[in-house]
Amino acid sequence: MQRWRGLEDIPEDWGRSVVTIGSYDGVHRGHQLIIGRAVEKARELDVPSVVVTFDPHPSEVVRPGSHPPLLAPHHRRAELMAELGVDAVLILPFTVEFSKLSPADFIVKVLVDKLHACAVIEGPNFRFGHRAAGNVAFLTEMGATYDYEVEVVDLFVSGEAGGGEPFSSTLTRRLVAEGDVTGAAEILGRPHRVEGIVVRGAQRGRELGFPTANVETLPHTAIPADGVYAGWLTANGERMPAAISVGTNPQFDGTERTVEAYAIDRVGLDLYGLHVTVDFLAFVRGQEKFDSIDALLVAMADDVKRCRELTSSAQP
After folding, report:
1. Where are the alpha helices (DSSP H) in the chain?
2. How many Cα atoms sit within 13 Å of 127 on the Cβ side?
3. Rounded Cα gap, residues 119 and 113, in angstroms
């Protein structure tokens, strides 16, 4: 799969293509429907499929300080899109100048002049251009002039976790923030993931017999609510069942939120400096401050037992 950053990266001899545009944070099941249809349409027309997305998130440029928590960094989104069969991903640097492009100018500069779109696939609520003035109706109207067709893909409605709402990144972020990683996984189609470099912490876990990987997460990462979770820690390509702690460590009067993962039944792991991923399977309990270290150790042993059971019974 080709990856381009900016319009200037697109090959000069690029021909017609099928395009879909959006932030696509998380590449959740609704996104998968749209992107999957774009890939399918491209194969029908025997042309490449292209996903256009933005960095930073448009809201951060339009309303500084409002950057939403991210469900997946751009490299992870690209990996997920490649798995869906996408031929190219175009990341457009979203600047103040770019945000002022009218919907018509956006269509000409991106879809027509550079990507030579023959079809555009979008969700029903797609908006684009200055002040999000462009919509699917305008996109379709302009297609008659610039020789591309528009297809709209309706998003499925999520189940019990989402209360019957359409699949969306906003809903997924809310569920993650509430600690409902099971509900988030229902929308994503996979467990919610955070990633980063393992750094040295206070090393209390090692002293207590449960050495943890203290993960320095990427900026703006959507981190679940404070608590203990079952999941997996992946390092050097190896996926290990894990008990994951999120929070400030109130037992020791901590103030900084951290994500720490204990690789269950693994001894002697040295993960410092490695880039790792942490996948959240299920919420186990909230964060607590216990009356004694002994009480904490009993709770931690119970947590590990529960996490071992949950991960062993989960689909690989």
Report:
1. 29-45, 58-62, 74-83, 96-99, 103-106, 136-146, 169-177, 181-188, 204-208, 293-313
2. 8
3. 14
Of 23, 114, 20, whose CA–CA distance to 69 is shortest?
23
Question: What is the 3-class SS of 25-62, one letter each residue?
Answer: CCCCHHHHHHHHHHHHHHHHHCCCEEEEEEECCHHHHH
Radius of gyration of the chain from its Cα atoms, rounded to whole angstroms: 22
> Predicted confidence band at 210 (pLDDT cuts at 50, 70, 90)?
confident
**DSSP states of 207-225 as a string?**
HHT---EEEEEPTTB--PP
Q: How far apart are CA 114 and CA 308, in angstroms?
A: 51
Q: Which phi and psi (to 5°) does residue 241 adopt? A: -55, 140
* Amino acid at site 29: R
Residue 275 — pLDDT band, cuts 50, 70, 90? very high
Show Cβ contacts of residue 76 under 8 Å, excluding neighbours closer than 6 positions: 193, 195
Q: How many CB atoms lie within 10 A of CB 159?
A: 12
Note whether 206 and 260 are within 8 A (CB): no
DSSP for residue 315 = -
Q: What strands lie across the sheet with 88-93, from one edge to the other?
A: 2-5, 88-93, 49-55, 17-21, 117-122, 149-152
Q: For residue 167, give the DSSP letter.
A: P
pTM of the prediction? 0.90
